[in-house]
Amino acid sequence: MPAEDVRALGARAERRRQILDAAKQVFAEAGYHGASIHAIIERAAIARGTFYLYFESKEAVFGALLDEAMTELRHRIVRIDTGPGARSPKDQLEDSLSGLLAFVVADRPLAAVLLSSSSTPDAEAAARLAGFYAEVRQVIALSLETGMQIGLIRRCHPERTAAALLGLVRGIVEHCVTRPVDQPLDQPIADVTRELIDLALVGVLAR
Amino acid sequence: MPAEDVRALGARAERRRQILDAAKQVFAEAGYHGASIHAIIERAAIARGTFYLYFESKEAVFGALLDEAMTELRHRIVRIDTGPGARSPKDQLEDSLSGLLAFVVADRPLAAVLLSSSSTPDAEAAARLAGFYAEVRQVIALSLETGMQIGLIRRCHPERTAAALLGLVRGIVEHCVTRPVDQPLDQPIADVTRELIDLALVGVLAR
Amino acid sequence: MPAEDVRALGARAERRRQILDAAKQVFAEAGYHGASIHAIIERAAIARGTFYLYFESKEAVFGALLDEAMTELRHRIVRIDTGPGARSPKDQLEDSLSGLLAFVVADRPLAAVLLSSSSTPDAEAAARLAGFYAEVRQVIALSLETGMQIGLIRRCHPERTAAALLGLVRGIVEHCVTRPVDQPLDQPIADVTRELIDLALVGVLAR
Amino acid sequence: MPAEDVRALGARAERRRQILDAAKQVFAEAGYHGASIHAIIERAAIARGTFYLYFESKEAVFGALLDEAMTELRHRIVRIDTGPGARSPKDQLEDSLSGLLAFVVADRPLAAVLLSSSSTPDAEAAARLAGFYAEVRQVIALSLETGMQIGLIRRCHPERTAAALLGLVRGIVEHCVTRPVDQPLDQPIADVTRELIDLALVGVLAR
DNA sequence: AATGAATGAGGGTTCATTCAT
DNA sequence: CATGAATGAACCCTCATTCAT
Q1: Within a domain: residue C24?
Q2: Between chain C and chain D, are at least 3 CB pairs below 8 A?
Q3: Which of A78, A205, B206, D182 holds its CA 20 to 30 A away from the CA of A127?
Q4: The CATH number of the domain where A70 resides is what?
């Protein structure tokens, strides 16, 4: 009875989702340590035991949340195509980054979790998040090196510059996300992205 | 007996220092939640009760640490003098930022504490740190606006750009600070600063 | 439809058996408290709810297991026939005990469960096991009294001696049962029985 | 100030004693698994945290209890001196065993804990108790071998016989200890010991 | 001022049992 | 009958804080 299986699987997946969503909100509000299982199950409106039917531990939910987010983000990080006939690198970058920002900013709790990097949750989760950011920095650094080779990018310390650019993006995300709920972004995310890219590319100096 | 008072006060201040230093290290190593009073008093080589003679609570030490750091940082944030006869804004910025970076990077524990922003410690401390960063952003935003008025800075959303630039600096600091102890920075902090400023000012594009 | 009833009953009894066997192994391996319903249903390859269709509770299975074992043991405890023309009491004892030991030692899980007496499972089961041992002691004590009356047995405190003799048997059983699986008994159980009886009857002194 | 140290040590030791005593009673009544920290601290009339100031874990108290008992018991297990001019082995054995029995029987909770052997508490504690009994069996087995060599003891399987004799003693202890509180032993422990030894030495047969 | 033993609320986790399907 | 997801009481343990000395 495949129908039944599908339904059963669906039910399980649904519950899992429900818990993940509750956990994401709680982690976003209280941080990893501040988040209590009590708060999570309360928000998910389930019993204590039910939680452990779906996740091995508090750390496990956090990890699952991270994995999910990281998978989504990875899909949205597209390497720039510098081959002949490709669109301008800037345009490509703009598209890629725009989608990424839109995704992150649209999910405030997720953004909060992702920005909580240095909060040092229990070892493994921290390592996972750190690893993700290292990966991102790597991609950026590589792109910078490529850009330098083809004369597109100024000479710079690729890793340090990557760290700086990542920080820059995080700064923007934080700015977009940490504003009162009633005061939405005054500009479409595409504009924010364009500005962000301009800033990164040409700096703040006039002309 | 003023002499005695002074001595007593001195002794008291010394003890306080001793605890603050121990706490800074522990917070840096373990994060706010991971830091235990036990670890702090052990490193400070004092008794449990003594701790509470000098600080009301764990949150209070964290707050004190933050205040101290923020005071130091405020002193090093100098508004750019755009008056006639002043040195070039870039040079001024470079000096100011260079000192600031040197100060932060030299005190890893302090940097770790400052970067732990979103780790959401107990409400009040988080708010204080957030407030500090808001203040810094404010300074940057104001500078940007001034720069825009005098045509030095391109047109941009001042607050958002300030957020981005602050993130950029944090990214650099994080990069400088989170490297293995045995692998020191490969360049003097002044060079790092220059690069950082170049990046912020003229972006990554060649030419 | 009696046929159906019988079949149903048979099926039910079979399921019950299946659960009992699984439970016996788990109790033997992990002790009463260490045994989890999860382990039992896993070994029995049934669903959680099914377990409770056959047994009221964890304690109930344990009780059933005990009852079963005790019934078996009772059948093998034969009162010595001291009537005229009966075989020698020693020979009778040897036969009876030999069968009993063989039965217990052959079923390690059962032995483990029986020896777990003082593990104090939930009140009632403990009481039941204690009751069984009391019953056995009673039989032994009675035999001793009879033996004393007919001059076969030395004067002694019958109950205490019975307790001692029971302990002796348990010591042997434990010894036979708690050896590595790969190292089987080096002697047939009949020999062990004979030695045990010799020991009980004539003690350890030479001659 | 040694006096202070001594006093402090004394206070600490006293508390430890208090907890150990409470734990012993609880373990005796409820078994290892049935014993809850709650029950222990309730009986000791201390707070939860205090318990963990003196013992690392539930298993640790159990271990301490066992170690204490085993140390006491080891002191009372005296190897028989078979040298020339020594008292009769039987008399020596009687003295040794008498002291041992008196000690164990006088401390019912302790006896209960010691007899809970097979209750399989968490691995390590179980192993420790098992190890102790193995040690005792070893001593008995060795004595038997010695006795066999000097012709005092009948030919027998030393280890199995040791297991049987240990069981015998445990049977007696259990009998002495598991009687209603209001019905004390009807005979002095010395008499019980003598009978036990007689039984072990010459068996139950008349003559 | 300094101590450190004592406290107990609160944390994460387990597991025997129930019940809607 | 059979299922297994859901339950929640109970467990062991930690740690910020207090207070008698």
Answers
A1: no
A2: yes
A3: A78
A4: 1.10.357.10
- Contacts for B166 with CB less than 8 Å, ≥ 6 apart: A171, B133, B136, B137, B140
Instruction: Evaluate whether residue C25 is within a structural domain.
Output: no
| Total count of domains within chain A | 1
Which H or E run includes B66?
helix B58-76
Give the residue numbers spanning the domain of C161.
58-203
Between positions 69 and 108 of A, the ones with CB within 8 A of B are none
Structure tokens at B23: 């706490």
Q: Which nucleotide is nearest to A53 (CA to C1')?
A: F5
Reading chain A (207 residues) residue by residue, the pLDDT tens digits are: 444 444 445 789 999 999 999 999 999 888 888 899 999 999 999 999 999 999 999 999 999 998 999 899 888 888 778 788 888 888 888 888 999 999 999 999 999 888 876 555 566 677 778 888 898 899 899 988 988 898 888 889 999 999 999 999 999 999 998 876 666 666 788 889 998 998 998 877 765
How many Å from the CA of D177 to C1' of E17?
36
Q: Does A touch B (3+ CB pairs < 8 Å)?
A: yes
Report if residue C140 sits inside a domain.
Answer: yes
The answer to which of A120-129, B34-43, B190-199, C123-132 has the lowest mean pLDDT is: A120-129
Beta carbons of B196 and B97 less than 8 angstroms apart? yes
Spanning CA of A140 to C1' of E4, the rounded length in angstroms is 53
